[in-house]
Amino acid sequence: MRCLCCHKELVDGEEFVCLDCLLTFPLVDCTDEHNPLWTQLSGQVPFERATHLGYYQPGDNFSRLIAQAKYDDRPQHNAFLANLLCDRLEGSGWPYDVDVIVPVPVHWRRILQRGYNQVSPIVRTLEKRWHLPVMSNCLMRSHYTMSQVGMGANARQDHQRAAFTLWRGSRLRGKHVLLVDDVCTTGSTLVACAALLQEIEGVRVSVLTLAKTFRI
Ligand SMILES: [Zn+2]
Fold first, then answer.
1. CATH number at 26-213
2. Whole-model pTM?
3. What confidence tier does 156 reach under pLDDT thresholds 50, 70, 90?
4. What is the per-residue pLDDT for 5?
C-alpha cells in the first residue's frame, strides 16, 4: 500500500499515510474544549461542544486529502481522517452524551452531479466507532446554494438560513445532536443548521468537522 499523500510505499506500522506526511498535518488539540472551531462558533448560536481535526489551508497534504474526497470521489480519504480524529479523541469524553448524528446535507442536485456525498464516509466512520445512530433525512437542503464568495457576512447568514428545512423534525425532540460536516469555512452553514435544529423542543447541538479554515 502506498501513502495517500506522497505515494511512497508504506512501511510496517503506517496506515494510509506515511509518518513523514502525517507529521506535516496542521492538526489542532481536538480534545481542548476551547479549540479553534469552538472559538469561531461560540457566541453565534448555543452549542454544547465543537471539535475538529486540523486547519484547512489549500495546497498542503492534509487539505489535499479533504479536497480530493470532495471533488474527486475519494471517500477513503475522509474515512481515514475521521478515524484519525476518533483516535485522537479517545479517552477525552467524546462523544459525551450525544444521541444521534446528523450530517450537514448536501443538495441532491450536487450529489447527482458528483455521484457521491463527501460527508457520508465521515458519518459512517463515527457511526461505527461510537455506535451512534444516524439521521440523515431530518435536515434537508432546500436551495441549491451558489458560491458565497463576495457576499457580506449578513447576506451570507440570510442566504444560509433559507437554504435548509426540517423534515419531521419532532423525531429529534429532546435529543443531543452531533452535527457533522467536512470543512467549516465561515461557519454560516453550521450556524444555520444548528439554529434550525434548536427550534425543535429540547434539542442540544454539538459540532464536529474534519477541518476549519483560518478565520475569514
Ligand atoms: Zn507520504
1. 3.40.50.2020
2. 0.91
3. low
4. 95
Ligand 1 centroid, distance to 77 Cα (angstroms): 13
Average pLDDT estimate for 116-121: 94
CA of 119 to the centre of ligand 1 (A): 24
Expressed in angstroms and rounded, the spacing between residue 3 Cα and the centre of ligand 1 is 5
Q: What confidence score (pLDDT) does residue 216 get?
A: 55
Domain boundaries, the chain: 26-213
DSSP sequence for the chain: -B-TTT-PBP-TT-BSB-HHHHTTS-B--TT-TT-HHHHHHTTTS--S-EEEEEEE-TTSHHHHHHHHHHHS--HHHHHHHHHHHHHHHTTS-TTTT--EEEEPPPPHHHHHHHSS-TTHHHHHHHHHHHT--B--SSEEE-S-PPP-TT--HHHHHHHHHTTEEESSGGGGTT-EEEEEEEEESSSHHHHHHHHHHTTSTT-EEEEEEEEEESP-
Report the chain's mean pLDDT, rounded to a whole number: 92
List, in order, residues 6 or more apart from 202 with CB less than 8 Å away: 173, 174, 175
Residue 29 CA to ligand 1 center (angstroms) comes to: 22
